[in-house]
Amino acid sequence: MPTTEVLPTHTPALFQRAVVRAAEVLRTGRIAALPSETVYGLAANALSPEAVAEIYRAKGRPSTNPLIVHVATATMARVCAAAWPALAERLAGRFWPGPLTLVVPKSPKIPELVAAGGSTVGLRWPAHPFFQAVIRECGFPLAAPSANPSDQLSPTTAEHVLAGLGGRIPLIVDAGPCAVGIESTVVDVTGPNPRILRPGVISSEQIAEAAGVPALAAGNPSTGPLRSPGQLHRHYSPKARLVVWSWREDRELADRLAGESIDPSQVHLLAHSRIPSEAMPAQVSFIPDDPEAFARALYGYLHLCDDRGARLIVIEELPAGSAWDGVRDRLLRASVPADAGL
Ligand code: TXA
Ligand code: MG
Fold first, then answer.
1. What DSSP letter does each residue of 136-164 carry, written as one string?
2. What is the CB < 6 Å shell around ligand 1?
3. What is the pTM of this model?
4. Model confidence over 230-270: pLDDT tens digits?
5. Among 3.30.110, 1.10.287, 3.40.50, 4.10.1060, what is the CATH number of 241-334?
6. What is the pLDDT of residues 160-197, one digit of tens each?
7. What is the 3-state secondary structure (H, E, C) of 28-77?
8. Domain ranges of the chain
């Protein structure tokens, strides 16, 4: 594969040029990394099995993990769906365009590979103006997983995409850091209640409120163990061991860190409630105690830890409340050891 082209978008003319170029690449059945408000996506024509196969190849993604299809109009969403449940209408009406994926019955127009052989398809109308402009220019929906090799962290900058997939894809469009920072909330709306398959910044409380009925968690014991097939924990893990700790005072934390016997330059600490003392035997970072700010910064921080050769990442335990569920879910996955299989 020749070198990967990286196109900027920071003036109207550059934005338009990148839209035209991305659409040209996608129309010829190739793939392109595009900015979205959640994370960067690796896009292909969702109606072309050959184009979609390119995504699985470039990412090294198991074909058992279905892809999200991105649309830019309500009509396009309905074309991808075999049925449009009332729940889908309510949630799309409230949260689209935005970081919400709705799992609905799949139209025969969507290739089996997109759905990983299943009977449903995940649909999202992204809020990012660049992603929307490319879908409109193409006139077809775009399948797009996060633009990272299958077992690595999701990218929130074009630099992250280049580091992971450079040389393996023809085009990356750079629109700066993603505003949301973690992947969309995935909600199954094929049953009477919305079921959260993957938490995100749109909380289960917001989903339930908009739906008018309670939201269920994936694998709720009363309703069976159905889960999103792609929920392999280590898809969200950094290379270093990640732990979530709470501590009452700096002294207690410092003692615990010292007990790990790792060089302080290889221990990264992320606090949110207050800034730890400078004497802490670790590289210290602080994100203000706000779920949106935390989500926006989290993957950038984990990428940085990987780049700096961190061996241990310590994150301060998060506050309670459903607004933190998306971030809490990613930390839970990131704290599963890379060799733990699922
Ligand atoms: O924010 C996002 O969702 C980003 C941007 C690019 O849109 N995309 C993303 O895609 O995170 P990916 O492929 O990395 O994660 C998609 C998740 C997987 O866990 C997958 O199993 C689940 O959504 N999913 C997709 N289609 C599904 C379906 N039909 N049924 C159940 N889960 C589905
Ligand atoms: Mg992903």
1. HHH-S-EE--BSS-TTSPPPSSHHHHHHH
2. 36, 38-39, 41, 65-68, 99, 101, 103, 115, 118, 120-122, 124, 144-146, 183-184, 186, 197-198, 228-231
3. 0.94
4. 455 556 789 999 999 999 999 999 999 999 999 999 999 99
5. 3.40.50
6. 999 999 999 999 999 999 999 999 999 999 999 999 99
7. CCCCEEECCCCCCEEEEECCCHHHHHHHHHHHCCCCCCCCEEECCCHHHH
8. 5-217, 241-334
- Under 8 Å between Cβ of 121 and 103: yes
What tokens were used for 10? 């920071």
Instruction: Evaluate the omega torsion of the peptide bond into residue 276 and state whether it is cis, within 30 degrees of 0.
Output: no
Q: How many other C-beta atoms are found inside a 10 Å radius of the C-beta of residue 176?
A: 12
Class of the CATH domain delimited by 5-217? alpha beta
* Residue 323, both tokens: 């607004």
Nearest alpha carbon, ligand 1 atom 12: 145
Length of the chain: 342
Query: 73 is written with which tokens?
Result: 């109009």
**Cα 186 to Cα 103: distance, rounded to the nearest angstrom:** 7
Pick the ligand that lies closest to the CA of residue 149. Answer: 2
Helix, coil or strand: residue 123: strand
